[in-house]
Amino acid sequence: MKKTYILLLAGLFAAATTMAQTNIASAKPGVTYGKTITPNNALVMSDLQQQLEKDTAFAGKIAGKVVEVCKKKGCFMKLENASGEPVMVKFTDYAFFMPQDILGKTVVVEGTAKVNETSVERLRHFAEDAGKSSEEIAKITAPKKEIVIVADGVVVVR
């Protein structure tokens, strides 16, 4: 009985996750996720890096190109950065998710950016969610200082 209950719950969770991803609006210009925002007055990524060298955090809008999105349910994305290290974007309280077709789109996010140290465990979790191979995940052996944005809203620009 207990096994049947667990299998039923697992099946319901898998169905809900699949259904949640299919209900996310396709990434077309003007579509917003989370808080409704406009693309006006957004910093570009290079300006964000300079801003974070002066201050411990930046609150506002940031523009960038999406280079990675969580393959499981769109629970994070990464934006292209001139340094070559993509910038992690998470969503406030996991209140919204990104569609898979947002990859390659230019977006504006509104939220707070900080330089954080991400643990090995968390880095491996993100790599797994991004669909990285077990070999790539095994190579993650040290924490990493990186810019992390927690976004309240996202708008697709192009």
How would you characterize the overall build of this protein?
The protein is an alpha+beta fold. The protein is 29% helix and 34% strand. The protein is built from four helices and seven strands. It has helices at 2-22, 45-54, 120-129, 134-138, and strands spanning 32-34, 43-44, 57-69, 76-79, 87-91, 106-118, 144-156. The chain has a five-stranded mixed barrel with strand order 3-4-5-7-6. Strand 4 and strand 5 (87-91) form a beta hairpin. The longest helix is centred in the first third of the chain and has 21 residues, at 2-22. The radius of gyration is 17 Å and the shape is globular. The N and C termini lie far apart (51 Å). Residues 7-21 have low confidence and may be disordered.
